[in-house]
Amino acid sequence: MASSSENVDQKEVEIEKHIQQLENVGTEEELEKKLNSMNKFGFSVANWMKILFNRESTEPFKAEWLTIDEYKQMAEESMANAWNTINLEDWRLEKRGSVKGDVVESKQTEQFGKVYRFTGMVSCPAKFLYEEFKTNLTKLPEWNPTILKSELIKEIGPGIDLSYQVTAGGGRGIIAPRDFVILRRTAALNKMGKLDDNDPYCYISSGVSVTVPGYPPCNDLVRGHNKVGCWRMTPKMVEVNNKMEQQTVFQWLMCCDLKGKIPQFVLDAAFASVMLDYIIHVRKYAAESKAKGLF
Fold it and tell me: What whole-number distance in Å separates Cα of residue 174 and Cα of residue 171?
């Protein structure tokens, strides 16, 4: 008679076999069919999806502090990558938002794989929004429920810092919250993407994932990896009630590995929803700030 430990091991082998089958699905219909055929071990479809989508890396955690110059170089490279990527042509429409002009687009790139770009208008000056993101990083969760935690780890230099963030889960609880350690670069730029504090064309807050001592992956979170990304805020004069006011063309470039074996069609829907939800909170914060006379 098999021991209880042998039964457990056999069950884990069976689960792993089914998970590997799920990792290779290519369509929503195929995923649903396989999930429905795997109602074993007392697992529901949601249970299977949680296991599949939230599988953590088994790689050992290794981290060491880099030099200031190394962080600065990495930050400048990440900003240049974000600038070059967000300005690429021939984007593919993923989803339109309920507000006119809101669009989520995607593009397959050689360097980073599939990237997503949101574009929409926010009724506030671009510099105000930029300063909020730049200087009030730790206060983001107070007005944005898609961010559960935002912590400043270390300031590297002017416009360069390390931060730790936890983002809310999605998919009705199926995709678990993720955490990220981000090297961030904030700056005012000209039309060529070069630094320009005197007469900026736009403002940018870019970020790339790094590992640092003291911030290993948590047991109750999945450590995501941000390949390339930024928020870009470009001033634009808009006529409102017969007078001109400065608003912001808000763009969000996102390309991150959420880990877990999440099918591409699930990622497409998840990223589009996150971006369209995010802008709702940005606009609400801008409206509340205007009502308080902050701009």
Answer: 5
Q: Which residues of 87-119 are buried (b: 16+ CB within 10 A; e: fewer)?
A: eeeebeebbebeeeebbbbbbebeebeebbbbb
CATH fold of 68-292: Alpha-D-Glucose-1,6-Bisphosphate; Chain A, domain 4 (3.30.530)
Structural domain boundaries of the chain? Answer: 5-43, 68-292
The 10s digit of each residue's pLDDT in 15-29 is 666 666 666 666 656
Q: Are 288 and 128 in contact (CB under 8 A)?
A: no
Whether 170 and 273 have beta carbons less than 8 Å apart is answered as yes
Residues 139, 147 contacting (CB under 8 angstroms): no
CA distance 165 to 282: 17
Closest Cα to residue 181, out of 201, 197, 166? 166
Mean per-residue pLDDT over the chain, rounded:
87
pLDDT in tens, 66-123: 999 999 999 999 999 999 999 999 999 999 999 999 999 999 999 999 999 999 999 9
* Distance between CA atoms of residues 261 and 54, nearest Å: 7
